[in-house]
Design brief:
Length: 460
């Protein structure tokens, strides 16, 4: 797993005087770096989760006994979990931070990624003869780099003169403001986003902003209602209004796709949208209603199905339906492909083997099977919030809905080439691993006394 280091952590590390504690801390970092995922890391180290603190703690042996606090953050490019180390302290000092936010003095979304070269400089300070003062200078410099804003582009400077709540950021291409608990971000290219959480979260709402007179600006929401109207915010009146929108139905539908399906990505020209389905499979939507389902066939060659798509506007939630030329249809709300040309009732093979037979590699559960072993597998899948049947209840039958769920699970959690819909020993093992560690279990109260801690860290 990749590691990020906060300024607090680097300072704590530089202040460690005990050689053994420093060596043990290095060992923990090596183990984190060697782990393929957080589940694997959890098995290798004595990790405790504390939801109220919004993070985790590693407790490891040493004299004195030491603790590391960390968070799991998302890498927006690789979509992987990253261990963000926050503080490293001996037990006595750690207790002061056990029930309060860390990095209180630099809490303004400070997030620093130290390069390997800089980290080597810190850890080999004695070899390259860096003094403790020089080490602290490096940390301070990094803090300044993370918190210092830059001059925004002229168009945003004009916006700042109107929107007094907005402030510059580390990028010249954006400014941000906090409005009723949400974070509004204005971009130099005219785009606008709103988030209820952190500025690094996915936007909850999107649109465009533009000047409306010398001392006013407006925001036009991307979402278009079935009656052709959409919301517009006017700074001067400080209110949202409904206004008539372009009658371009195609553009309206492309924009609204994003509000139905969070996994939809719209191209910059607003003419197309796409969605990753499973592994290398993609849905592609065009504004004129054309649709393509692109996938790699059994020979790993790119292929595609053609069809059309449309949005179904409902009283509560909107939905979209895809219809392929071969007759198959897909409805987003049901997450299900159907083939109306095939009306025959499927037949299922009754099987009597046990789940232990699957675990040992003696048997495989697949589409078309029926029996108690399928029901046991369905119970595991329900614990993973996977779809198993039309009713969502255990029916001991491996049908098309369950087959699709297994394929999606394999595409997300299994090696390339495992997306066959069959549940053998490897797929079953992976399901059980994820079920047994889902990150939601309640942890005992924080015990920083160390009296009952007999865990010795494994040498690597």
């Amino acid at each position: 797993m990749r590691i990020e280091y906060t300024p607090r952590y680097l300072k704590d590390y530089a202040d460690i005087k005990d050689a053994r504690a420093k060596k043990e801390t290095d060992k923990v970092e090596r183990i984190i770096g060697a782990a393929n995922n957080f589940m694997e890391l959890h098995k290798m180290l004595d990790i405790k989760k504390y939801p109220d603190l919004g993070g985790y703690r590693i407790r490891y042996s040493g004299k004195p006994e030491w603790r590391i606090r960390f968070e799991l953050v998302d890498d927006l490019q690789t979509k992987e979990k990253v261990v963000k180390l926050q503080i490293v302290l001996p037990r006595e000092k750690y207790q002061k931070f056990a029930h309060k936010p860390v990095n209180e003095s630099i809490e303004k979304n400070t997030k620093i990624i130290i390069t390997e070269k800089q980290l080597t400089m810190l850890k080999n300070a004695k070899i390259i003869k860096l003094t403790e003062s020089q080490l602290k200078d490096i940390v301070v410099q990094k803090i300044m780099e993370a918190t210092t804003t830059v001059t925004p582009k002229p168009i945003l400077q004009k916006l700042l003169s109107i929107e007094k709540n907005a402030t510059p950021t580390k990028s010249p291409n954006q400014v941000a403001s906090r409005v009723d608990g949400s974070i509004w971000t204005y971009y130099a290219n005219g785009r606008w986003e709103s988030r209820d959480g952190k500025i690094t979260d996915k936007p909850d709402d999107t649109g465009i902003w533009y000047f409306a007179g010398d001392n006013n600006y407006q925001i036009k929401d991307d979402y278009v209602y079935p009656n052709g109207k959409r919301n517009v915010y006017d700074k001067k009146t400080n209110k949202w209004h409904d206004v008539e929108q372009t009658k371009d139905q195609g553009l309206r539908n492309i924009q609204n796709l994003k509000y139905i399906d969070d996994n939809i990505t719209i191209t910059n020209d607003r003419k197309r949208a796409y969605r990753k389905w499973v592994d290398t499979d993609y849905f592609i939507f065009w504004e004129d209603g054309d649709f393509r389902y692109r996938f790699n066939d059994v020979n790993n060659k790119e292929n595609q199905h053609e069809g059309t798509w449309k949005i179904i506007y409902g009283d509560a939630d909107d939905d979209y339906i895809i219809t392929l030329k071969n007759g198959q249809t897909f409805q987003y709300s049901k997450n299900l492909w159907t083939d109306p040309t095939k009306r025959t009732t499927p037949t299922y093979q009754n099987v009597s083997f046990k789940l232990d037979d699957v675990s040992s590699g003696k048997a495989v559960i697949k589409k078309g099977m029926k029996g108690p072993v399928v029901g046991e597998l369905q119970k595991i899948m329900l614990e993973l919030n996977m779809k198993i049947s039309k009713t969502g209840k255990v029916d001991n039958t491996f049908g098309p809905i369950m087959d699709l769920s297994v394929r999606q699970f394999q595409g997300t959690n299994m090696p390339t080439g495992s997306k066959d819909g069959k549940v053998g020993k490897d797929t079953l093992k992976r399901m059980i691993e994820i079920r047994d560690y889902d990150g939601s279990e309640e942890e005992p109260e924080v015990d920083d006394s160390g009296a009952n801690d007999t865990t010795q860290m494994t040498e690597v």
